[in-house]
Structure formats: C-alpha cells, structure tokens
Task: structure prediction
Amino acid sequence: MLEKRIQYHFKKSKQLYGSSRVTEELLKEGHMVSSKTVSRLMKKLDLKSRTVRKYKATTNSISKRDNS
Result:
C-alpha cells in the first residue's frame, strides 16, 4: 500500500518530487514513515526525480556593433 502511495505522489508531481517531498506528502496523509524508508522504496521502484535547471543566458543580446 505504501509503495502505491509513493508512486501516486511521484507521478502527481510529474516526476519532480524526491524522497523528502514525497515523505512530506505521506505525512500529511497520516502515514508514519521516515524519509530513509521512502528513499529505499523509491530506489526499489526505480523512481528517480527529474532535475529542472533554470535558463541561463550565455551570450549578451546587445552587441557592441549596435551601439554605433
């Protein structure tokens, strides 16, 4: 049952939540579970959260030639 709830919260978050955030959601539901237990079960179920990086501009959009 706990594995199904972990999968539910993981998929609900669009695979963004890691074990700590999934643990928070389970605690809100009333499940007494530790983050280490959730982490172990997520590894067993092969659930790995995606990492989303912020966009970083690598070039300056205003070139020196435009200032003439």
Observations:
- The mean pLDDT is 89.
- Helices lie at 2-12, 19-29, 35-44.
- The chain has three helices and no strands.
- The radius of gyration is 20 Å.
